[in-house]
Design brief:
The complex is a heterodimer of chains A (231) and B (111). Chain A is α+β, with helices and mostly antiparallel strands and 231 residues long. Chain A has helices spanning 25-42, 50-56, 77-87, 126-136, and strands at residues 5-6, 60-61, 64-68, 90-91, 112-121, 139-143, 151-156, 168-181, 186-194, 206-210, 223-229. Helix content of chain A is 20%, strand content 29%. In chain A, a hairpin with a 4-residue loop joins strand 8 and strand 9 (186-194). The N and C termini of chain A lie far apart (34 Å). The radius of gyration of chain B is 22 Å and the shape is elongated. The longest helix of chain B is centred in the middle third of the chain and has 24 residues, at 40-63. Chain B is an all-alpha fold and 111 residues long. Classes of the chains: A alpha+beta (231), B mainly alpha (111). At the A-B interface, strand 3, helix 3, strand 5, helix 4 and strand 7 of A face helix 2, strand 1 and helix 3 of B. Strand 7 of chain A pairs antiparallel with strand 1 (67-69) of chain B, so a sheet runs across the interface.
Chain lengths: 231, 111
């Protein structure tokens, strides 16, 4: 595995987007993974529609009927993959643009840009997540966002951050080996995480989180998706 | 009988922030992020939340010294508002990890 890796350098990541005052992070995490998988399989980067998921996806977790995708009220990336497999795919951003609030479903199967063939959960193991990231492309991950409300930059490595209370969906796009962490008296490797709160937030819209400790639950909900271009 | 209504005899916990350094920081925050509030009550309410979030950023800085923490576009939101409006992963009984779909086979990563 390379010491440092960044899908942005390979052109597999679209611009940082902004979910606005709407709990739709799960949709942005989902489109980021589908955009990356589509790039890995076709070499083309296409910005895909979160609004289709916000308006049309009502899939529920088969094991937990309370955990359903609910527009600005929250959702799960793996539910969204299920929805996309059944719905027939995802439209481009430009054909179904983002509004930041839930509306009537205007999905048009004839406008599908990318199909989702399959998806998988990644084992709770840092090395496996790293290997899948390099092999598959950017991964959807869940995280406890408690330290992100005040984050401005640097490598975040909180002394205490619950691994259980995952409340935010983001996109793992790469990792670095040289982020200095004073308290752990060494150069800590870190994850490069794409967020959906606009470019003014954090490190140009990105969050750097130290690796190796399942920090803030980053390993607990990693998933990857397999796509096919719509003919 | 004397009027039995209960009268507050202690000051509000939050000191009056008007005219303080915190209010000046709040003004800078409002212009940086293009914020405006419809009423004076809302302005004072958000100023109070902002003051608490400045303290929270200082706590986060102590808890997370290798990152930089401070005033962000969310500094006028309570933690509950922030989570409700800007996160959005539903709570699910995670059990052993992934919830929907198969788990990927282990990749050989030796060497």
């Amino acid at each position: 595995l390379p010491k440092d890796f960044d899908w942005r350098e390979k052109g597999a990541v679209t611009e940082v987007k902004d979910q606005g005052a709407c709990g739709s992070c799960w949709a942005f995490s989902t489109t980021g993974a589908v955009e990356g998988a589509n790039f890995v399989s076709t070499g083309k980067l296409v910005s895909l529609s979160e609004q289709q998921l916000v308006d049309c996806d009502k899939a529920c977790d088969p094991k937990d009927k309370k955990a359903c995708d609910n527009g600005c009220g929250g959702g799960l990336m793996t539910n969204a993959y299920e929805y996309l497999e059944k719905a027939g795919g995802l439209e481009e951003e430009k054909s179904y643009p983002y509004t930041g609030k839930r509306g009537h479903c205007k999905f048009d199967p004839k406008k599908v840009a990318v199909k989702v063939l399959n998806f998988t959960n990644i084992p709770l193991d840092e090395d496996q997540i790293t290997a899948r990231l390099v092999q598959h492309g950017p991964l959807s991950v869940g995280i406890n966002a408690v330290f992100m409300q005040t984050y401005i930059g640097g490598v975040s490595c909180p002394l205490i951050c619950s691994k259980k209370r995952l409340n935010h969906g983001v996109l793992l796009v790469g990792y670095g080996s040289k982020g200095f962490s004073i308290l752990r008296l060494s150069n800590k490797p870190y994850w490069i995480i794409k967020n959906s709160w606009g470019k003014k937030w954090g490190d140009n819209g990105y969050y750097k989180l130290c690796r190796g400790h399942d920090m803030c639950g980053i390993n607990s909900m990693a998933s990857a998706v397999l796509t096919q271009v719509s003919s | 009988l004397e009027d039995l209504t209960i009268r507050q005899v202690t000051e509000d916990r939050l000191p009056n922030l008007l005219g303080t350094h915190t209010e000046r920081k709040f003004r800078v925050f409002m212009s940086d992020y293009g914020k405006s509030y419809s009423t004076r009550e809302e302005y004072i309410h958000r100023l109070g939340i902002f003051a608490k979030n400045v303290l929270k950023a200082a706590e986060h800085q102590m808890m997370d010294p290798t990152a930089v923490h401070g005033v962000t576009q969310f500094s006028d939101l309570t933690e509950e508002e922030f989570k409700r409006m800007y996160t959005g992963v539903v709570d699910v009984d995670r059990g052993h990890g992934g919830v929907v779909g198969a788990e990927a086979p282990q990749l050989d990563i030796k060497g």
